[in-house]
């Protein structure tokens, strides 16, 4: 698997195909199903927790006054939902071990 900053669904499916030997079509269905389950959980409950990975949480941001840094023009930024991810301690430990090497 190549290391990049961004992954597409196709690249994740390709990695599964290379690792486990499943068909590319089955891997793509698998990736899409996992992402659909996460999205549906967020829509229904506002959060999704994946054991030993982390939690996705929808937070509500209130409207506020913002400023265009280029023109200094003030604009109202509307109230909106934002998605936050909080990694599990397991993931944080793994990341910190990699960074120490």
Offer a quick outline of the entry.
This protein is of the alpha+beta class and 101 residues long.
How many helices in DSSP terms? 3
Give the strand content. 25-35%
Uncertain residue ranges = none
> What is the makeup of the main sheet?
3 strands, antiparallel
Task: Give the terminus-to-terminus CA distance.
Answer: 20 Å
Overall 3D geometry? extended
Order of helices and strands: HHEEEEEH
- Work out the radius of gyration: 19 Å
Mean pLDDT reading: 92
Helix coverage percent: 40-55%
Structural class: alpha+beta
Strand arrangement within the widest β-sheet reads 1-2-5
Number of strands: 5
Question: What tags apply to this protein structure?
Answer:
101 residues, alpha+beta, three-stranded antiparallel sheet, 3 helices, 5 strands, 28% strand
Describe the overall structure.
With 101 residues, this protein is of the alpha+beta class. It is 46% helix and 28% strand. It has helices at 9-20, 24-45, 89-100; strands at 47-50, 54-61, 64-67, 74-77, 80-87. The strands form 2 sheets. The protein has a 3-stranded antiparallel beta sheet. β1 (47-50) and β2 (54-61) form a beta hairpin.
Fold topology:
Layout: H1 9-20, H2 24-45, E1 47-50, E2 54-61, E3 64-67, E4 74-77, E5 80-87, H3 89-100
Antiparallel strand pairs: 1-2, 2-5, 3-4
Helix pairs in contact: 1-2
């Amino acid at each position: 698997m190549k290391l990049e900053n961004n992954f597409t669904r196709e690249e994740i499916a390709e990695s599964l195909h290379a690792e486990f030997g499943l068909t590319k079509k089955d891997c793509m269905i698998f990736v899409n199903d996992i992402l659909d389950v996460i999205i549906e959980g967020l829509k229904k409950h506002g959060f999704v927790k994946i054991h030993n990975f982390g939690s996705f949480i929808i937070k509500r941001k209130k409207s506020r006054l913002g400023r265009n840094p280029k023109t200094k023009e003030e604009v109202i930024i509307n109230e909106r939902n934002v998605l936050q991810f909080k990694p599990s301690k397991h993931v944080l430990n793994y990341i910190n071990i990699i960074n120490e090497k």
